[in-house]
Amino acid sequence: MIVVTSTNSRRSPRRRKVVRASKRFEKDPAASFERRLFRTCTAPSAHRVDVDLTGVTAPAADTMAMLLHARFVMRQRGGELRVIRCPDSLLPLVAACGLRDTVVTHQDEPDFAA
């Protein structure tokens, strides 16, 4: 799996960090994705962290636990965790875990589920 972190400030003056799962991984989230996610969430400049889950093909409880923990960390720091891309197969699990409020849509990205 390749994990890409990018910074984008075009939508707001605050820096936005994006963590992407850009290659498929099946059951368990890759350790490198988890490390990159939490490194990004705990960075001093992280006010908003966007997660792209297009590389996650199979719903897994540990993936949802990782996202719940990341959201908790961001809220404790006064920030926000958002899921900007989520496969349709994950949406029921995301909703059941109480993470539905983190899934957002953008008009300039019409190809992801919401």
UniProtKB/TrEMBL annotation:
**Low complexity: bias regions:** 1-10
The protein's superkingdom reads Bacteria
Per UniProt, the ranges with Basic residues bias are 11-21
Read off the InterPro entries from this record. Answer: STAS_dom_sf
User: Region (Disordered): which ranges?
Assistant: 1-21
Q: What is the protein named?
A: Anti-anti-sigma regulatory factor
Q: What is the lineage of its organism?
A: Bacteria, Bacillati, Actinomycetota, Actinomycetes, Micromonosporales
